[in-house]
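From the shared-data thread, chain only:
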Amino acid sequence: MAKPKQKKVRQSPQAIAPSTSSSLVYEVEMTRSAETVYKDLYRKAKEAELKADYTNSNCTTFDMVKDVVKRIIPGDPINRKYALRGELSNVFRIRKGRMRICWIASSKHRRVCILFISETLRKEGDASDPYVILQQMVDSGTLDALFSQFGVRMPRLHKEGHLGMPQ
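Structure, as tokens:
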């Protein structure tokens, strides 16, 4: 007889502070668009749980993103292995499954701002490519105030090329 799956109790998306009590952990903030995606992933996972479908891909996806937001990013946000290249070398990203999460960090203020959580698959050059979307956000100037507030060097705008997007 198969063992029944154990029920997980999902925390509210407002509880995004890191679970560790270390003073080395960074405070995490999100842009409105990143928070919207995070809350939507939470809602979909919660709906699956209410149907007792704990193996649903929405549960898996939210758990991956929550782990990144609560543990991985706050614990080591300025690790160069997460850095983009070129003009966006002060922007960091992590791949979890098919998701991309991009952020900036201030070591001086010990704060992180998640700029973007992708909802699309990566297809280089495609209009829905997460890195094209991030580049458009940077080019539009909508993130300028955040870059300034965090003391992160502003990328120079380029109309024609990729701004440090990984291949």
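The chain has one domain: 27-150.
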